[in-house]
Amino acid sequence: MRARPLTLIQDELVDYDKAMERMTDLVGQRQRDERPDTLWLLSHPSVYTIGRRTPVDHLPDPARGIPVMETGRGGQLTYHGPGQLVGYLIVKLGEEEGIVDYVREVELRLVEALGRLGLPAERRDTPPGSELLTGVWTSESGRKIISIGMRQSRGVTSHGFALNVDGDLEPWHWAIACGMPDVDMTSLRRELDGRADVSMDDVRPVVAAAFEAS
After folding, report:
1. What is the per-residue pLDDT across 143-152, written as a single tens digit (0 to 9) for each?
2. For strand 7-13 and strand 38-43, is the pairing parallel, antiparallel, or unpaired?
3. Is-above-0.85 flag for pTM?
4. Per-residue pLDDT tens for 95-142?
5. 50 phi and psi, to 5 degrees?
6. Considering 119, 148, 178, 207, which one is annotated as catalytic?
7. Is residue 119 classed as helix, strand or coil in its secondary structure?
8. Per residue in 24-53, is it b (16+ CB within 10 Å) or e — as a string?
9. CB neighbours of 87 closer than 8 A, spacing ≥ 6?
10. Among 12, 53, 120, 159, which one has the highest count of C-beta atoms within 10 angstroms of its own C-beta?
């Protein structure tokens, strides 16, 4: 994996629509070479986000009271909420790189981070004709712990990943995540199950280090 140091921005809870506005500004700055490659770590209040291909029957019941927002990233429905670490990646790709290449790199860096936190994990290749298996999965239980949805515009990436640390997993059961009805979304808290006490404060620096971000 090539060296790719990033500049780190960190925030706590940021409303999704406000985050999208700032991310758009960051992408424009990177396209104009006004800022370096950047990793922005933050969390969102509860919200479902959907990609362009998300079927209506995958959406949650509005009675659940969690807003649903369309987004320009790839992928299908995902959930964001407190206790989840979101990372937005604003990176200018090389001339011979595509977004799929970079997503594979992101998966491997996150696998490395989870390993440092005591949780063996893996990326998966998508069998022909199957729903995309983009993301990171636990090696032992086979559950999905990180969702990834990205795009590129004029050579610069946007959006990124969502790592479930210690938040409520119940909202994942109220919709169909990632286009996969049978997916079992999990978190570090659930997987480590008392073997280690990992908090958001523990996870942030490990993820930043895996992306060479400071």
Report:
1. 999 999 999 9
2. parallel
3. yes
4. 889 999 999 999 999 999 999 999 999 998 876 655 568 899 999 999
5. -130, 145
6. 178
7. coil
8. eebbeebeeeebebbbbbbbbebbbbbbee
9. 39, 40, 41, 160, 161, 162, 163, 207, 211
10. 159
